[in-house]
């Protein structure tokens, strides 16, 4: 349909401009717009004149429908931007508190499982991409956004441009990972898929990068082929990277920098799943002298 048939309302246009001025990511913008749209549907009128009580009723509505804490908080974040920034009505959201989200421990693969997983990857391109996710601890979006020039073999580092939070950082490049990437580069170059200054992992059209959806499909395929029954995702590889480094006694602050965490408390979560580290701890019972009678 034409733009004339579906004109953008002045309020929506202003919100779009507010988000663009602050350089919010595309997914963030989509999420904020969805939050306002869903609130609009609930109210059955424009949210421009909504009150704090309307927001309270909406949050109760979401809770009664069994919506997850993650989704409720996402909705509230979008509405907070709408009222605080676009409408300059801070009082509407002033007393709204986010829902507590129980913190769950991530799934971690053993070193042996990672080896089987990578060996089962469907082709060298995907094996190289999945190896970057594990070997450098990169997020899926960071892996697919890499360009050939981001691999620095002299400094043995990977440049990650505009990762989460729009921050640049350097990730580690191990000799083993470098060899896998070189093998993929030779194969991709022979196939004519590696364009000068182009993507490290091109999509079907070399002008475009591989999509995160493609990489996720390859991840699930590799896990199935490797016979891994744990729930494996791209983020599982990143979690495993950080946990295995911690088990190798790498300083947690170094790991924080490598994975690009802003808060050390996020990195500290891996201390709870580093089982090798736990096994090396001598329990207080072991320090007790003398023998112990067997349980009856």
Descriptive key words:
about 50% helix, three-stranded antiparallel β-sheet, hpI Integrase, Chain A, DNA polymerase, domain 1, 13 helices, about 300 residues, mainly alpha, 2 domains, globular
Q: Quick gist of this model?
A:
Pfam families: Phage_int_SAM_4, Phage_integrase. With 296 residues, the chain is mainly α.
How would you describe this protein?
Helix content is 50%, strand content 3%. With 296 residues, it is mainly alpha-helical. The chain folds into 2 domains: 10-93, Tyrosine recombinase, N-terminal domain (DNA polymerase, domain 1, Orthogonal Bundle); 111-278, Intergrase catalytic core (hpI Integrase, Chain A). A 3-stranded antiparallel β-sheet has the order 1-2-3. A hairpin with a 4-residue loop joins β1 (151-152) and β2 (157-160). 29% of the residues are buried. The model has no long low-confidence stretch (mean pLDDT 87).
Lay out the secondary structure.
Layout: H1 10-21, H2 26-43, H3 52-64, H4 69-86, H5 111-119, H6 124-135, H7 140-144, E1 151-152, E2 157-160, E3 169-172, H8 175-190, H9 212-225, H10 234-247, H11 252-259, H12 264-268, H13 275-279
Antiparallel strand pairs: 1-2, 2-3
Helix pairs in contact: 2-4, 5-9, 6-8, 6-10
């Amino acid at each position: 349909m034409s733009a004339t048939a579906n004109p953008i309302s002045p309020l929506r246009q202003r919100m779009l401009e507010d988000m663009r001025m602050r350089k919010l990511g595309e997914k963030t913008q989509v999420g904020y717009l969805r939050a306002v749209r869903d609130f609009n549907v609930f109210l059955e009128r424009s949210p421009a004149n909504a009150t704090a009580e309307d927001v309270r009723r909406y949050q109760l509505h979401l809770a009664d429908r069994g919506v997850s804490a993650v989704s409720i908080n996402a909705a509230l974040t979008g509405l907070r931007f709408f009222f605080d920034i676009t409408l300059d009505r801070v009082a509407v959201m002033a007393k709204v508190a986010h829902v507590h989200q129980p913190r769950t421990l991530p799934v971690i693969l053993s070193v042996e499982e990672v080896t089987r997983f990578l060996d089962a990857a469907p082709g060298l391109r995907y094996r190289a991409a999945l190896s970057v996710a594990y070997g450098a601890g990169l997020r899926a979006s960071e892996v697919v956004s890499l360009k050939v020039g981001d691999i620095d073999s002299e400094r043995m580092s990977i440049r990650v441009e505009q990762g989460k939070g729009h921050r640049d950082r350097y990730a580690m490049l191990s000799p083993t990972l470098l060899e896998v990437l070189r093998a993929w580069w030779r194969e991709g170059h022979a196939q004519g898929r590696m364009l000068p200054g182009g993507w490290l992992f091109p999509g079907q059209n070399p002008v475009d990068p591989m999509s995160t959806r493609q990489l996720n499909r390859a991840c699930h395929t590799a896990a199935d082929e490797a016979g891994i029954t744990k729930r494996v995702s791209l983020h599982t590889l990143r979690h495993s990277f950080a946990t295995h480094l911690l088990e190798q006694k790498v300083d947690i602050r170094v790991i924080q920098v490598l994975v690009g965490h802003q808060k050390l408390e996020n990195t500290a979560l891996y201390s709870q799943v580093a089982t090798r580290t736990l096994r090396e701890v001598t329990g207080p019972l072991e320090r007790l002298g003398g023998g112990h009678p067997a349980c009856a």
